[in-house]
Amino acid sequence: MVEADQKAVRQIYWRENRRWMLTLGSIWFAVSLGCGVLWVEPLNQIQLGGFKLGFWFAQQGAIYTFIALIFIYARVMARLEARLGLGEQEG
Amino acid sequence: MSLTETTYWVVGASFALYVLIAIRSRAGSTQEFYVAGKGIHPVANGMATAADWMSAASFISMAGLIGLSYNGYGGSVFLMGWTGGYVILAMLIAPYLRKYGKFTVPEFIGDRYYSDAARVVAVICLIICSVTYVIGQMKGIGVAFSRFLETDYETGLFSGMLIVFFYAVLGGMKGITYTQIAQFCVLIFAYTVPAIFISLQLTGQPIPQLGLGSTLADGTYLLEKLDRTLLDLGFQEYTTSVRGSTLNMAAFTASLMIGTAGLPHVIIRFFTVPTVQAARTSAGWALVFIAILYTTAPAVAAMARLNIIQTLEPQPGQHLAIEERPAWFKNWERTGLLGIEDKNEDGLIQYSADTETNELVTLDNDILVLANPEIANLPNWVIALVAAGGLAAALSTAAGLLLAISSSISHDLLKRTLMPHISERQELFASRLAMAAAVLGAGYLGLNPPGFAAGTVALAFGLAAASLFPALLLGIFSTRVTREGAILGMLSGIGVTLAYVFQHKGIMFIPGTSFLGELPPNWFLGIEPNAFGVMGAIVNFGVTLGVTRLTPAPPDSVQQLVEEIRIPASP
User: Fold this and answer.
1) Does B79 sit within 8 Å of A63, measured CB to CB?
2) Residue B449: what pLDDT?
3) Which residues in chain B touch residue A79, judged by CB atoms under 8 angstroms apart?
4) What are the chain A neighbours of B287 within 8 Å (beta carbons)?
């Protein structure tokens, strides 16, 4: 019984983990290679203060988003691990 | 006190600090030597990682690369590439390798791919990437010394080697970690102080990141003014000039991103934190500390470029007379970073994009950061600080690379492959010996830089992207990938990338041996050699997965290992 439970917990954990990686990974792609490179020309038509928006994403916005993505990922994973009892002891 | 004296004091004080730290953090075991006892706080490790990561190139050259060589927008590849990799690292690599919980990157590859051959191939890839990288750092140390302290290049290099030797051989990862934290503080302070001043002077906004989007004294936006000024001088617009093509920019960015996530000296930093969760948050903190410099750099790039243009041509058509050029201009002419030639002999300096008439014949990338404090009329101690900061950036990265190289030799080659029976004390001694040899080897290459040393930092990323990253990623996310697949994948990835670089830049970078020429028309899909790592990675993935289908599945123990590293702790 314990064996089967463990297996189910691992599967839930890995499925959730993959879901978050996919979601946050898509944002990661969208703000850098998307807004910063592929769609930069249409975005540059929009002005954000003294910045063209596409240029801002490429030189500022992408980096700020990356930071947010990592902390969001760390947080949701820590919660998931606590919920499933997979959290670790220091050491 | 003269500028040189002030610089000696500031640099001397920073070196004394590093030595003090080294004495207090001697390593007593292999665990301490390789992974600092796995007891580093995630924020502290984030800071150390930031210093480990930001090299002499980031500190001294990047703003100039963006502002001058890549003319603004094109330089975004470095900004996004060298930061975006941390998201991949935090989500796909660092937590799992931390769970695996051993000492080096080749060690994981050897265990996961159940073969000493895979381990040795990984060691070879690691050494190729890290050595190309470390040469640049050693040169950076020598150059920084000779520019700021007016010593010759060799003396500078030896002083730097001596300091690294002292704390890396004594303390290993433990010593390196604590000195890197100190070095981060020195380098980030040195980078931001002049940036704040130049932003204040130009836009009245103390935060450079906001200053970049603010208005100048005449009411126009800084970037708008820069765009217009550059167009008038015959350059492309600053905010829209693409490097090569959109595909080339995307490939370059992607290569730097996955290269970041595959560089061993960065990955091993995440072995030093206590838990898997700490590895994730630590990557976040590392990026916070890196972003302080990386979001400031584009502001420095645009502001310093505008400053230089306005010094040379205060009003359109009103050029600076050669006789009246400011003192900092003359100072940097002596170092060869700036150079003028009065082609039309009118006694004025005309700067333009046209190489026929341009009279600012030398404008080195490094000048944007190095001369910044002088252009902004800042006190001597700020200029001295920039010297200490550049040295801190070069020393901290060199030490991290040297540790990656030496631990792969003493641990992976010696302990895990050739002499598995040596005791821990013998291994610790061997690791110190390997470190000493690595420092001397790097110093030798710094003194006699091979022809390919220039501009190879970006190449190191391409090589890491094409060789180690796919092996690590597939090793974690697939239980089925086999040793044959991984070994052939790594060899073909690094092989294709090296071949592409060699065919355009010369075999071993020897001029004249490049059989396809360096010209853009010969580039595959218009992708420049430095950006080719992502193509090498695609080849690596393809070969690995193809060969895997033809070879028998890995043993059960390996599949269990993969299942195990995916979860932080067993329930």
Assistant:
1) yes
2) 67
3) none
4) 63, 66-67, 70
Residue A91 lies in a domain: no
A67 touching chain B per CB within 8 A: yes
Chain A: residue whose CA lies nearest to B240 = A55
Closest-CA residue to A77 (of B38, B567, B262): B567
The domain limits of chain B are 39-247+265-308+377-437
* Chain B nearest-CA residue for A12: B567
Tell if the CB–CB gap between B569 and A86 is shorter than 8 Å.
Answer: yes
Which residue from B205, B208, B184, B186 is spatially nearest to B195, judged by alpha carbons? B208
Q: Which amino acid is it at B432?
A: R
Query: Which chain B residue's Cα is nearest to A50?
Result: B213
Segment B369-376 mean pLDDT: 83
CA distance B211 to B151: 37
pLDDT of res. B352: 87
The yes-or-no verdict on residue B190 having pLDDT over 50 is yes
In a domain, A80, yes or no: yes
- A75 phi, psi to nearest 5 deg: -70, -50
Q: Which helix (H) or strand (E) holds B86?
A: helix B76-88
CATH superfamily of the B39-247+265-308+377-437 domain? Sodium/glucose cotransporter (1.20.1730.10)
Query: Whole-angstrom distance between the N-terminal and C-terminal Cα of chain B?
Result: 65
Examine residue A89 and state whether it is found in any structural domain, yes or no: no
Task: Choose among B466, B458, B459, B465: nearest CA to B493.
Answer: B466
Distance from CA of A79 to the nearest CA of B (A): 10
Query: What mean pLDDT comes out for the span B366-377?
Result: 83
Residue B526 has pLDDT above 80, yes or no: no
A30 touches chain B (CB under 8 A): no
**What are the tens digits of pLDDT across the range A2-38?**
667 888 888 999 999 999 999 999 999 999 999 999 9
The pLDDT of residue B113 is 92
How confident is the model at residue B453, as a pLDDT? Answer: 43
Amino acid found at B189:
F
Which structural domain range is residue A36 located in? 2-84
Question: φ, ψ for residue B405 (rounded to 5)?
Answer: -65, -50
- pLDDT at residue B423 in the model: 82
CA distance B486 to chain A (A): 23
Number of Cβ atoms within 10 Å of the Cβ of B244: 17
Res. B348: pLDDT tops 90: no
Nearest by CB to residue B284, choosing from A33, A70, A91, is A70
Would you state the pLDDT for residue B533?
A: 85
- The pLDDT-based confidence of B462 (bands split at 50, 70, 90) is confident
Cβ–Cβ gap A89/B569 under 8 Å: yes
B127, B405 Cβ separation under 8 angstroms: yes
> A63, A71, A86: best mutation site toward chain B, by most B Cβ within 10 Å?
A63
CB pairs under 8 A between A and B: 153
Residues of chain A with Cβ-Cβ distance to B240 below 8 Å are 41, 44, 52, 55
Does A90 fall in a domain? no
More confident residue, B504 or B3: B3
Position B454 confidence tier, pLDDT thresholds 50, 70, 90: very low
A5, A17, A58 member nearest B76 (Cβ): A58
Please state the domain count of chain A: 1
Which pTM does this prediction carry?
Answer: 0.91
End-to-end CA distance of chain A: 29
Phi, psi dihedrals of residue B535, rounded to the nearest 5°: -65, -45
What does the pLDDT look like over A51-73, one tens digit per residue? 999 999 999 999 999 999 999 99
**Two structure tokens written together for B480:** 């089925």
Cβ–Cβ of B80/A50 closer than 8 Å? no
